[in-house]
Amino acid sequence: EKGRSKKKDPLCKRQNNPMMTQISLFSRGAHSRSLDLWSLIASSAFTERVCHLQKSLRDQQPSTWSPSLCSARNPINYTATTALACHETSSGHSGFFSCLLCSEGDWWLAKSLSSGRKGYIPSNFVAQVDSLEEEKWYFKALSRKDAERLLLSSGNKVGSFLVRESETSKGAYSLSVRDSDSAHGDIIKHYRIRSLDGGGYYISPRMTFSSLPELIHHYKKGDGLCQRLTTPCISLVPQRPWAQDEWEIPRESLKLVKKLGSGQFGEVWMGYYKNNIKVAVKTMKEGSMDPDAFLAEANLMKRLQHNKLVRLYAVVTKQPIYIVTEYMANGCLLDYLKTEEGSQLNLPKLIDMSAQVAEGMAFIERMNSIHRDLRAANILVSETLCCKIADFGLARVIENEYLAQEGAKFPIKWTAPEAINFGVFTIKSDVWSFGILLTEIITYGRIPYPGMTNPEVIRNLERGYRMPCPDMCPGELYNIILKCWRNKPEERPTFEYLQSVLEDFYTSTEKQYEAEPQP
């Protein structure tokens, strides 16, 4: 860090500490994009972060040997694996770093051995040399469902593949390959990679290999697999982590670029934070809501962090208040389903989107929270068709239930009868809304209860009416929807159950692994 002498720098006292790891970062050739880490470290954001954390650094240092730390006598080298860059490079430039605090968390404190500068490097940008993490096709602890989602995302093609750890057999691996057939279109097939007692791996016992890279190299020729292995699955570019101390930010650090729409509390914009991080910014209409309530919403969103919930980054606390979240390229699910691309989604993808929403709501359920406004308009879609729950404008942390204030507005067609009649919202009323959302998804954004007014919906619900099964909706899915609409809230399923049944909607009737390749 500039401006600090070595004499006063507490980090310098640890330069001779044996608990250090050496990191080597390399680009992948002239054609690749590499990360200029020190251009990031030198930025004001990183400098502020270093200043903030240096004060407590001594408390973070272990007083005794920990197995998670690495000895400088046996340094571990790392290589850059992520194609996210601030600058293009045309040469095989390498940078060498010494890790002062090892392998805990998303950011590692490192020191440049060439310049002597210190800063934080993102741990997910590096992999240990001569390890599987260095291979572009290795995705480690990726679930079967997420492997299918990744391989079916745009940019991948038939023959794209990845290797992941087996979810069911410790120490084993699975090979997932994108295939295609005339009946189902593009699908994912999985092969179990077994280990030999004496070391080595095989898919078919007639052909064994000493290492996984050797196995992958062989099956690039096909040899009985559904497809010849072509290119590794495209990795998701990791979002730049948001500094923990950048919560209340100045308005001047934000640049609003494009208006995306209007919400309950104001407008939503696409913009940039510090001119380089793309974000979504929700502005509050002055007088439409108490500022304290808005900040309470923001603090709730900050606590509820999950990969299926839109992440809150920061807030501007002075009027007009801004709330800054991650940017989702495809906008809200309701609008996306009506686009040319969205209207072409097949049934398995629609079911998968439903499962993603259920996963996010299962997390909210575990956190004893409710949403109160669950509908397709409040689900956002990323470029890779990842669905995340947004707009916690009505969400509240609860003990048992949240009593709606008199006169509060809520969307009738998505609202459970007990919430309409008595103003009582619970996680079970969210389950009812989820059933309505499922009809939106399966009909590509059709308005619920078509042709009915809100008063007609209320009267029909009191008589026990339920929307009929939409066209093209499988009977099994409609049965799930009807469970969400049970009259007694306690008889409705949990989101944990809904996530499980939707994720297994097809796999429960499919074989888990393909047969061994035949000669």
Automatic annotation (TrEMBL):
Binding site for ATP: 282
GO biological process: one example: B cell receptor signaling pathway
EC numbers, comma separated: 2.7.10.2
Database matches in InterPro entries: Kinase-like_dom_sf (IPR011009), Non-receptor_tyrosine_kinases (IPR050198), Prot_kinase_dom (IPR000719), Protein_kinase_ATP_BS (IPR017441), Ser-Thr/Tyr_kinase_cat_dom (IPR001245), SH2 (IPR000980), SH2_dom_sf (IPR036860), SH3-like_dom_sf (IPR036028)
Gene Ontology cellular component terms for the protein in this record: plasma membrane
Keywords: ATP-binding, Cell membrane, Kinase, Lipoprotein, Membrane, Myristate, Nucleotide-binding, Phosphoprotein, SH2 domain, SH3 domain, Transferase, Tyrosine-protein kinase, Ubl conjugation
Catalytic activity: L-tyrosyl-[protein] + ATP = O-phospho-L-tyrosyl-[protein] + ADP + H(+)
GO molecular function terms listed in the Swiss-Prot or TrEMBL record: ATP binding; non-membrane spanning protein tyrosine kinase activity
All residue ranges annotated as the SH2 domain in the record: 137-233
Keyword ATP-binding: yes
Family as reported in the entry's similarity comment: Belongs to the protein kinase superfamily. Tyr protein kinase family.
Protein name: Tyrosine-protein kinase
Native organism: Strigops habroptila
GN (gene name): BLK
